[in-house]
Amino acid sequence: MVPIKEAINSGAWLHCEHKYGYNTYQFRIKVDSFKILNLKEVDDPEEIDGLDENSKLYMLGIEVINITKEPVALHSSIDFLLLVDQDGFKFPIFKERHLYRVSEFGKKHKLQRFDFKELLPKIKAVGSILFQLPDDDEAEYFISIQNDGTVQEV
Questions:
Q1: Which residues of 5-18 are buried (b: 16+ CB within 10 A; e: fewer)?
Q2: Predicted structure pTM score
Q3: pLDDT in tens, 88-119
Q4: CB-based contacts of 74: which residues, under 8 Å, 6+ apart?
């Protein structure tokens, strides 16, 4: 696991690897930003489904390079990313139709790039992903990956 603040400040690429089915997937990510999403910036925020009270949406701006030899579906790669807080609680990516596919906000912040598209080998993809996190300003978050995968600085 790598602290998000450290990943942003260093500007380093992170090597991510995990198994899914019989395959091992590898990709690199660079974290460009991590900020609370202001729902006032979203067109038709009442259309957002599944957002719980006492939570906040955070947007993680990332660059991704698939280093697996073949094109990889997002459900086999990026969708396995997690944020883990200092207490070990795990938070998956928050995928929501209005934000990722319909809203102008999603288009502006390139949420669509990491929704139902493939990652081609050796080509950098740039966009954002969302996480629904507790309303806790003191929390520190780390980048991790499901299925006992590894995330480490390159």
A1: eebbeeebbbbbbb
A2: 0.91
A3: 999 999 988 888 888 888 888 898 888 878 89
A4: 114, 115, 116, 117, 118, 119
Report how many helices (DSSP H) and strands (DSSP E) the chain contains, helices first. 3, 11
Sign of CA dihedral 84, 31, 74, 20: negative
Nearest to 65 by CA among 1, 126, 8, 150: 126
Here the tokens at position 130 are 């969302």
Q: How many CA atoms lie within 13 A of 7 on its CB side?
A: 28
**Which domains, ranges and CATH numbers included, belong to the chain?**
2-153 (2.60.40)
Taking phi over 0 as left and psi of -120 to 50 as alpha, with beta for the rest, 54 belongs to: left
- The order of strands in the sheet holding 90-92 is 2-3, 141-145, 81-85, 90-92
